[in-house]
Amino acid sequence: MALLEIKNLTIEYEVEKVVVHAVNDVSLSIEQGETLGLVGETGAGKTTTAKGILGLIPDPPGRIVSGEVLYKGEDLLKKSNKEMRAIRGEQISMIFQDPMSALNPTMKIVEQIAEVIRLHKDCSEAEAQRGAIDILEKVGIRGERGEEYPHQFSGGMKQRVVIAIALACSPELLIADEPTTALDVTIQAQILEMMRELKTEFNTSMLLITHDLGVVAQVCNKVATMYAGEIVEYGTLEDIFDRTSHPYTEGLFNSIPRMGVRAQRLKPIEGLMPDPSDLPGGCYFSPRCPYATDKCMREHPPTVDIGGGHLVKCHRYTEGGLANG
Amino acid sequence: MSNTSVNTASGKRVIAKRKWWTGLLDFFRRLSKNKGAFISMFFLIIVVLACVFADVISPYDYAKMDLVNKLQFPSWQHICGTDNNGRDIFTRILYGGRISLLVSVISVAIATVIGPIFGALAAFYGGRTDGIIMRFLDIIMSIPGLLLSVSISIALGTGTVQTAIAIAVGSIPSMARVMRAQVLTEKDKEYVEAARAAGATDTRIILTHILPNCVAPLIVQATMRIGSSVLLISSLSFIGCGIQPPTPEWGSMVSAGRQYVRTFYPMVLFPGLAIMITMLAFNLFGDGVRDALDPKLRR
Question: What predicted TM-score, i.e. pTM, was given to this entire model?
């Protein structure tokens, strides 16, 4: 049984009668100890999916329309607030994108870490503090710096603290929402390396949300590409990187520079992502797709398994192909 | 963590004790960097002590009339002079401080506790909760402050606590509004969401995460409110609600001196100075407390 299995999750935001289809019929699963990379451009619904797992969608305006989020076989969407609070931070924890604002400016670092421990473990304040200092040292910060406040830390250090908070209760699943986006490249590498080590040490599974394929290649076992709230391609790292199948994933690869290939210009994907409150008929990617045909404009493609669990949502792989339909 | 050592019981006590003391010492150390605030704090301590020990300091009775010696200018016998009934003004300022300071501090304390609770709840839950709470406070706000205090004061009767409540009710909406605005900006910050993702309850998020980040404007608002409360108390006593004569009270002492303002200045000047200097001290002290509590200004 997979540790986390999302089935047909659909999330909408309704703002003044306009319905924004943020996440459409998303299914994915994460096994114990595995790292799944969720890739896609800004606004594809990656963060909304992550918040959906933790039940952190603000309601209103957000609304989970349908689907199941099975964690160890139990549907998280059916859990009460109280049950969810016990899961958040202990079983599933989240690393936020911007370490600058993810820490409370008026609380000492060690207290912020100790807070999570106190919330979930039945222990005294002193034990929690000691646990907090232990985990702080694990992420490479000297214990005595715990007495300081967030503004005394650099960006990379703050992200280490955020990771320490997320790992304080040794969660089974870690959701990392663009953990390195706000950091510069040298610090990115350090943080990724550290996350990988800690993940192995704690045997944590991870859902890594990013738009950086380089990060995915370093850390992930499986990759899901997300576009306009849908998973358009899903497979192992090798499936996605070596047997790229969906035109959108292909476009993502073409828009990053590669060593050894002398291209005059990068080939970005033409156009913009469709407005999620007004999605096009047929395939959502069809307006930007170089292979699009009439059928793509008309019919929404089904998800097809093109071999060994490599899933693609594209008419090029459906029965009959692009031409007839 | 589960693998901690054996002597946790004693260890906990030591850590908790150390934290409490160093926190307080740290606060005063930072406050002492702000000279104005530090001097104000000592001044306020002296004022409070002087008011508390008024009967030791002054040989006179605040209510005893001595018409032979009325309207005396300051002298060694009466350092602030005597009023139109021959009562020693300095003595009346000391006794009046008891009432003025006590009532205004109590009323501001009531407003500073209740107002922000409403404001925080309104901002945090939004929607209908926000609507109901804020419209209710708008109704209170739409009633002129003096009329509201007079009505409540008449309903509750005279007395220190009753007067404090009458004045506090008028302050609650503005305290709530300050808090609401502050919480609205704080509650969407990522650390609040991070706390929620860590499994914290709403109460905990409001109390330990949002509130400490919202106190700065509240402290300023509260210290300014002390000043306006003193004036409101005097308005109440002037109308005949609130504090009853012969109990002296700063505001009513000033208003009693109005008719003598051209010919006999001490009746207006000295109680007025008492109000002014004390309010200045409160404001400076409030500023200092706000700065001392802000971790970003720590060194």
Answer: 0.75
